[in-house]
Amino acid sequence: MVSTKLILLSISALAMVQTQSTEPYCDELTTTKTTAKPTTTKITWGCPSTWTKFSRTLGQWCIKIYTGTFTYEGAKAQCKAVGGVLSGVENAAERTFVINQGISILNTIGTVKEGALWLGALRSTACRGNNATLSICVPAVNNAFVWTDGFTTGKSMMTWMPNQPDYYQKGEAAVQMVIVNQATGSGGAVSGQLNDVVATLSTAPNALNYIRGIVCGQKAKATYS
């Protein structure tokens, strides 16, 4: 006969097993998060060889002066042929550069002390013909002119020769920068001042507005590294 004491011990042991947790055993899980290392791209703005870079409101701009005698349309065609456009002048650094290049041209010629360079600027169509006297065109004369390269802002560099622009015979719609290799030129002009002329002008030997070259420009190109 099984003793009553042994039966009670067996029942007690069984009860203890049943009260233990039935949840499965799990090892602690460790998660490692990998963060991608940030990368940076360096942008460098550059100009073609022999062109000079300038900073503008809209970005970096390249300028080169080409020597020669051109009409306004001929000047546009020449700039286009080298990948650019006839350029305006936005700031003092650009104007100083253009003046110095123009004086170098005069020094190379050697026999003249003054001349002019075509710029990318025109009298606006709203201020031509009989409209030239409209209030939007005078007396703030720079309202009558626009830069044509699409990248020149402001008109602080539109400073004119004495008594210019005069829109002579309602035909002078193009703009040139005069270059003087002496204290003053004809009509009291100094280097860097502007003059309005007919777009067909190309030659006028020994005259202040004789075309000695053109100012071409193009946007600087970006390279990434």
UniProtKB/TrEMBL annotation:
Keywords: Signal. The keyword Signal applies. Residues 1-19 form the signal peptide. Residues 58-177 form the C-type lectin domain. Gene3D superfamilies: Mannose-Binding Protein A, subunit A. InterPro entries: C-type_lectin-like, C-type_lectin-like/link_sf, CTDL_fold. PANTHER family: C-TYPE LECTIN DOMAIN-CONTAINING PROTEIN-RELATED-RELATED. This is C-type lectin domain-containing protein. It comes from Caenorhabditis angaria. The lineage of its organism: Eukaryota, Metazoa, Ecdysozoa, Nematoda, Chromadorea.
